[in-house]
Write a structure and sequence with these properties.
This protein is mainly alpha-helical and about 100 residues long. It folds into 2 domains: about 1-30; about 40-100. The protein has 5 helices and no strands. Helix 4 runs antiparallel to helix 5. The chain is elongated. It is an enzyme of class 7 (translocase). InterPro entries: NADP_transhyd_a_C (IPR024605).
């Protein structure tokens, strides 16, 4: 337990940045009109592609005995992939609305 507190003490600036970015993200997304939500989220899929690549790189460099980091990296890859695939499916359905019907 003491090692956890040491880690928090050594990385408190990064923890503050993550917490502030969460609140900022909630405020920004909360103010987007629902008409623009789908196009903006389909554009955000590129960001999740970067998350997937970053998680794969981190998982490749982490110590094989560090199971927590491996599990978190694996979850990041899975959830990022689900978000990218789901976003592309929503974008495809949105673009189908603009095609001419036969």
């Amino acid at each position: 337990m003491e090692s956890f507190f040491d880690w928090v003490h050594n990385n408190h600036a990064i923890i503050y940045i993550v917490i502030l970015s969460i609140f900022l993200g909630i405020e920004v997304i909360g103010r987007v009109p629902s008409v623009l939500h789908t196009p903006l989220m389909s554009g955000a899929n590129a960001i999740h592609g970067v998350v997937i690549i970053g998680a794969i790189i981190v998982m490749g460099r982490v110590d094989p005995d560090n199971y927590i980091a491996l599990i978190i990296g694996f979850l990041a890859v899975i959830l990022g992939t689900l978000n990218v695939v789901g976003g592309f499916m929503v974008t495809d359905r949105m673009l189908e609305m603009f095609k001419k019907k036969k």
